[in-house]
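Appendix C: a fully annotated inverse folding record. The material below is reproduced so that readers can follow the format used throughout the book. The structure is listed first as tokens, followed by the designed sequence.
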């Protein structure tokens, strides 16, 4: 009797479990904008793209960033920037990026920036100086960009393109907003922009600062930005 009862209970349990199982389509996660991979020529803080021997505190900070220990990464980037390398814009960018990762509720805009590091390190640092200054100003302002701070992803593009706007891809909640690939309108837009903008290989830090601030200003006009809207906003700004 006990055996029959147990068999019956098991059968009923399986029926109940079967009824409770809900089959859903697999959730496809959005690709990570800034994957923590080494030697991939892009970085938000996990490695230096200049391949010089980094100062000790910056080395620790990048290791902590790679290990997702963002509080420690932020602290060591701060120490490195203030005590070891105040003239290193890469460290300042990584410090700002690490601070954003200490709070999971912060939803920043991300702008990926292609810099000719392999082709010209001196020029790359000059451009990063303007970019770091723009990010720092935005993130320490009260308004930010529609209330959101800015994260910078640095990429070494090996000096392959001259166009300023072809160097930038802006992201909003993980979705790319701007770029010269993937869509015909994106390619057409950047082809047009490359004819009217400064040569990235001869640009200075002020030009780089203005490029970031122009994209930020365009984003401010778009409560719910998408690729086409951002391109239209940038066209209006650059025609002025």
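Designed amino acids, in order:
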């Amino acid at each position: 009797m006990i055996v029959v009862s147990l068999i019956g209970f098991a059968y009923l349990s399986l029926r109940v479990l079967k009824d409770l199982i809900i089959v859903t389509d697999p959730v496809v996660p959005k690709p990570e904008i800034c994957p923590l991979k080494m030697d991939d020529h892009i970085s938000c803080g996990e490695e230096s793209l200049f391949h010089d021997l980094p100062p000790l505190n910056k080395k620790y900070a990048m290791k902590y960033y790679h290990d997702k220990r963002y509080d420690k990464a932020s602290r060591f980037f701060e120490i490195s920037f203030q005590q070891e390398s105040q003239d290193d814009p890469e460290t300042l960018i990584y410090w700002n990026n690490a601070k954003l990762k200490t709070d999971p509720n912060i939803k920043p805009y991300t702008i990926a920036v292609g810099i000719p590091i392999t082709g010209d390190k001196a020029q790359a640092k000059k451009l990063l100086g303007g970019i770091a200054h723009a990010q720092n100003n935005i993130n320490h302002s009260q308004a930010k960009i529609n209330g959101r701070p800015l994260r910078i992803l640095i990429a070494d593009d090996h000096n392959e393109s001259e166009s300023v706007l072809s160097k930038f891809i802006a992201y909003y909640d993980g979705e790319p907003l701007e770029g010269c690939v993937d869509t015909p309108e994106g390619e057409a837009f950047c082809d047009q922009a490359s004819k009217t903008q400064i040569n990235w290989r001869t640009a200075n830090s002020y030009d780089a600062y203005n490029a970031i601030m122009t994209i930020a200003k365009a984003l401010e006009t778009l409560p719910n930005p998408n690729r086409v809207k951002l391109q239209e906003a940038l066209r209006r700004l650059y025609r002025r």
